[in-house]
Fold these 2 entries.
Entry 1:
Amino acid sequence: MTKLNQIALKILENGKGILAADESTGTMTKRFDSVKVKSTPENRILFRETLFSSDGMKKYIGGVILYDETIKQKSNTGKSIPDMLLEIGSCPGIKVDTGAKQLAGSLNEKITEGLDNLRDRLKEYSKLGAKFTKWRGVYNINKDCPSKLSISSNAHALARYAALVQESDMVPIVEPEVLMEGNHSADECFNKTSEVIKKCFDELILHKVDLTGVILKPNMILAGINSKNQISNDETARLTVKCLKESVPSEVPGIAFLSGGQSEIQATENLNLINKFNNTKFIMSYSYGRALQQSALKYWSKDTKDAEGTQKIFDHRAKMCSLAAQGKWSKNLENI
Ligand code: 13P
């Protein structure tokens, strides 16, 4: 077993998953605005540290994706955030892309940037304690999208990123996110997601990325949010497992889904069904942002000093996701 494979398994094994706390300052400001909290560096670390010091972190969160600001901040005990996470047995990770920008040659598609100086930035993050990284490509579905250009340029960027990350002895999370926005059918989502993921792995192989040291972070297969033909959670789970079985090389140790705008319960229920139907060798777990933090943020915003109350809500959510990652969740557990 390689060192990278060990890190990937440590993050995802035993019903653990990932907390995606890597919202950029802009995104975090939007989240704080929605609950009327001022987005200052102090408030951002206060909320995040409240979650990081909870019981649920130790039990259910194998890795946390941090943002550049957070990985350099200190906890209130004076420890660095990566040290604080390492001490409780959770791996610190870092988002290293610099965002999705307009793709030249396409009217309305995006290409994720951040390859310039990446090798040097990775060295710095590794010194700060990071064990894994994240890079997200985004794809829209509509009549002409995602185009071959967007599929191929984002796959190329993801592969160059992943190769550099492994060179720095960290595990790359490869995140090609086909967005839920739009009125496309679940079948279209299935076809486009399959095409996107296959192209990503073609490029990863071309760039000699060790697939045993990669975590894939995909979307689930859903109809667009504006589609009149929504599918059941059962169908989502079956189609998602089928898509991944057909598109992901068997060497990949683990898959950690994004929640992508699904409600907390929907993201939990779908993950649970996916694990019930999982007939692959892949670990199928979570790398949720909103579906782990939404309720906790809402509660915290009412009294930012109530760490205990906030942690109780986060612990419950993390426990539900962990049960779902093992196919052991049921709706009645939500009411306890
Ligand atoms: P959501 O679970 O809120 O989609 O966030 C996960 C993530 O990291 C998106 O890049």
Entry 2:
Amino acid sequence: MQAKFIFVTGGVMSGLGKGVTTSSTARLLQLAGYRVSCVKIDPYVNYDAGTMNPVAHGEVFVTDDGGECDMDIGNYERFIDATMTKDHNITTGRIFMDVIKAEREGKYLGQCVQIIPHVTDAIKDNLKKTAERERLDIMVVECGGTVGDIESLPFLEAFRQMALELGRQNTLFIHVTLAPVLDVVGEQKTKPTQHSVQELRRIGIQPDLLAVRCKTPLTPETRRKISLFASVDQSGVISCHDAPSIYKVPEMLESQGMLRTIAAGLALKRSRPRWGDWKKIADSFSTYKNGKVRIAVVGKYVTLPDSYVSVYHALSHAGASIGKKVEIDWIDSEKFENGTSISTLKGYDGILAPGGFGKRGSEGIISAANYARENNIPYLGICFGFQLALVAFARHACGLHGANSTELDPHTKHPVVDFMPEQRNVHDMGGTMRLGGHDISVEEGTLAHRLYGSTSIRRRHRHRYEFNQNYLQAMEKGGRIKLSAHSDKGRRMEILEVPGHRFYLAVQYHAEFSSRPGKPEQAFDGFVRAAAAAAASQGN
Ligand code: GLN
């Protein structure tokens, strides 16, 4: 069976929610009973997202097979509840690497290697192979960037060729654009959409559907005008107005008959979604019946909320499941090194320390981890937040003065967090951390075991440093803390907890990547419940 392909391109400008349109389209098709998955194309030259600054590009999403991917992969996983592989994120770097490798191996002997056909063939092969391997009915392919970017040209050209080769009933184009309104009572402007569709046509692609971002629903007049100028039937002009939550977008698309239009274009038999409990789950993100819970996220990359986007979603999944809106304050940990008192964290129901790299701001996180432990405030530490909770405990409860991670102080007297031995001979920075899913054994009778309800779990990782077990005895002495889970046959510790504390859990893995709407990840679930209980006990 040949898979069908839906290509999602972007017009006008970035940040219109192409990822949510892609995920929601995939979700609708999945609810109609199709085997669907998504692929994100990032036209930048990096091989993957692993070496990019999270404050500039957003979070690096880690797949179970160890891919360091664009954050859109996280949206896909959350919407279609799938575990994706790194093949679902294609960059120019990856394609060129394949092509150049093949050229060096002599696979193109005698030929001049060119963008067309060699690079475009490599793109098409990549997409087709993934669709085939996963036996997909439909693959939704999102191309990053905006039409007109030089970098995306080879990819759009590959899409055009696929439409030609596979035929119109096997390919469909959705273009995401914007209908801005310039003043409060003003009309919705269609010119940007007209221009970006023209740009797309210039390279040989005529869109079948337009997903038009707008503040309020598209007026019939705007729809008519866009339809006329873009040569897209009115049924294919979809209003993507502001929604109370991203999880409501599939319903918004469907209320305009999107599935019927896609089914007609791709000659699909089923065109009705079976919603199951999806609508109820989506509603839980806008109808918070039980008030709110206030969380301080103390981290290094707070200037761009996207740099912790999966942490944000995992918190909101946990909150929505108990009817609580999670109100997050993103706090720069460096503040606590520059005069702001750590006791300003007092007013929060919970403190979360997320992942991070490098010295700047690390002392602030150590102070926050210690403050949460000493003041019985629910704490969740993730990766860096786990390592620095260990440092805080070593310094403040075990008398190990000057304890640190060797990442932050290579000459520390007490390296309670140290380089993983196998990292010592690693020189390349890209793709060389301990990455992806690893099996973890959880000790019975611990908080971790109560949360997970199992002695064996699997979670994703992205780190070079780990707890130095030479300090295990000193740290666990007296039972004040407990390292309650391990992996790689006991070689690495994965969870730290503080018995008797309201909730103090820190994990070496990235729990946030495994959370789904309606199915919050257990560490986040426990944390938000504990924070809600703490708020209730204080009458907040
Ligand atoms: N910098 C730490 C390490 O490399 C933590 C990484 C992280 O938080 N993802 O081990």
